[in-house]
Structure formats: structure tokens, C-alpha cells
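Translate sequence into C-alpha cells.
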Amino acid sequence: MAMSPISVMSSEKDHCRHRIVFHESTSLGQVDNYYNLYPTIIKLGFDNVPTEIQCIIRAANNNMTRSPRTAVMSSPIREPFSLHHQCYILLLILCLFLVPLKTSPTPTTEAQALIRWKTSLVFHSSLLNSWALTKISSLCEWNGITCDNGGSVTEITLTDMNLSGTLDQFDFTAFPNLTHFVLDHNNLNGKIPSAIATLSKLIFLDLSGNNFYDGIPPEIGKLSELGFLNLYANSLEGPVPYQIGSLQKVWFMDLGSNLLTSFDSSRFSSMPYLTHLSLSYNNFSGKFPPFIFKCKNLTYLDMSSNGFNDIFPDVMINLVRLEYLNLTSNDFRGPLPANLSKLASLKHLRIGANGLTGKIPDDIGLLSNLLILELHNNSLTGRIPASVGQLVMLERLDLHAAGLTSIIPSELGHCTNLTFMDLSLNSLAGVLPYHYPI
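Result follows.
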């Protein structure tokens, strides 16, 4: 199949001078002519009509002469365009109008979307009075709004703005450049819309301290750039969708104080950048979620006030970067790991109100950074290790009702930074260090 370029030569405006590729194919001894239009055919002209389409229409109403190498549009009549060719080109034009054109957002579009959502709210702070149609030209100066250099909205921050209503009327598609969406500590309710997944550039999402209910939408897992996810203190229920594990850039995730029940651990991916994870105050039960042990960069882990009922996992000691560990008020059983000292970065160790048994490991004194140690309300046995006296930075020691026996070690006197100590409801004897504030 030979191809010959066609040059459009017309007395029309210069913007109509665009190339069309002429194709010639032979079938059963007959020659059929058709046109392969360049991708720029949908470029808009000054009158908002695709420029190249205008040219093709004009070409269809002219005549054509063709040399062996080129075909030239000219006004003298040589060979009329056949009706077949005209219909074919017009059909192509119609098809072009069926293809949605991707448009960039304008400040006006974004401003109108914000005003529509504001109007749908039951109540809002007077600080949103700047959100007005009469002030569209100053969108980037509206309260809670941050823009990029092109005037497109990149951040919406409405913390504690007394907002009451839903996100049902929020047009997420109007904000393709949004990186921060912060609505924490308001009175918003309803479901978190699945359309939130259209915010493909979102880095920071904070919906904490509201009344959102139903489940966490699985579509949140499509927010591939997300680094901060805070859904704390809502009424979200059901399982945590495994798609959340697709958030491979997340470093902060707080799902605490909801009504969540489970993880699909078999399908939940590890999160290599996750440093902060809170699942506290939910309705989780069963075994310790194994994906957590793959999150090697965790520094903060709070799973308190749930119904986990598993043996205290020895593999916990592999999370060597942990600084904060809170498993209070669950049903973890068995002894503490003998080599607990591998968690050398720990500052807070809170494992009270469980079913732990056995002795407090002697090497607990090697946790030299420890500030808080809580082992209360367990079924431990034996004594308080003298090595606790090595925890010279310790500020809080709560061992009440832990099942301990023997004599209070005098080495506790070395813990001079203690501001709180509770050893009650054990079977201990001896005296407290003289400098301990009673």
C-alpha cells in the first residue's frame, strides 16, 4: 500500500493548512481512497470548533486533483468528491464528537464545585463566607484553600470548621491536582464516597473526628500517591478492605476509634514505608494481623482496646524500630519474649489488661530508652527484676494487679525520673525508695 501526502492549499485562513495522509489500496481491480487524519484533528480553533474538522469540511466541498505523488485541493473543478467520500468524512467527524475530550480544570470550575458543596451543607463556619460566586477571581485567597502557581486548587484544609453535612455533593473530579484533603474535627456524616479515588495526586487525607459510617471504601486503595491516611474517630464498620494494602507509599495510618472488625490478612500486602499504625478502640478479634510483621519500618503501633486473642507473638521482636507499642486491653496470652531487649528503641511499652503469664524477662533493663512500662492486670508470676533499676529514664511504672510476688527491689531507687509508680494489688513486700513521691 503506497502512501502519498496531500497538501491542503486553500484561500481560507492559515489555520486550515494541515496535512492529511492519502492512502491508496487496490481490491479486485478497483482503487479506494481514504484519509488517515493526524491526531491534531481535534485541536480547537479560535471559535472553539476543532480547526482540522473545519478544514476537512471545506475540503469535502471542494475538488481535488492528484498527481502520482501529491493531491492538491484547488477550486477549479477536475474530479468531484464522490458522495461516498463525503459521507465517510462526515461520519469520521461525527465520531470525533463522541470521543470525550480531556480538559484541564479551571479556577472557575473548581470554585463552582466548592460553592455547590458548601450550599449542600447543613451548617458551616462563617469562615467559609469567602466562598462566594462574587469572589471566584480570588479563589486562592478563600479560607482553607491553597493553589499552585497555575491557580489550581492543591489543598483543601477545613479543620474544626463546624461543618455539618455529607460529601455526597462534593465533586471530586473537579480537583485533579488536589494533594491535601483535610476535614478533621467536624460533624460530617454519611458514607465516604468511592469517587474519592479520582483524586489521583492525593498525598494527605484526614477525615478524623467526624461521623462517617458504613465501610471504608475499597477504592481508597487506588490512591497510589497517598502517604497520610487518618480515619480516626468515626463510625466506620466491617472489615478493613484488603485494597488498603495497595497504598505502598503510606507512612501514617490511623483507623482507631471505629467499629472495624477484621482484616483479610491473606490478601493484605505489607506496607514498606508505614511507620505509624493505630487500630485502637475497634472490634477486632482473633489472631495478630500477620501483615504487620512485614512492616519493618514501624515506629508506632497501637492495637489497644480490641478483642485480639492470640499468643503474644515472638516475631514482634523483629520490629526493631518500634518506639511505641500499645497492646493494652486485649486477650494476648503466654509469656513475654525472652529477648525483648531486641526492641532497643522502645520508649513506651504498654501491655496491661491482657492474659500474659510467666516472668518479666531479666533483660528488660536493657531497654534503656524506656519512658513508660505498663504490665498491669496480667497473670504474671515471680518478682520484679532488679534490672528495672537500669531504666534510669523511666517516668511511669504501672505493675498493679500483675500477679507479682517477692520483695520490692531496692534498685528501683535508681529510677529517679519516676513521676508515677503503682505496685498495688500484688504480693510484694519491702519498702519504696525513700525519694519516691507518695
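Note: Helices lie at 51-60, 83-98, 107-120.
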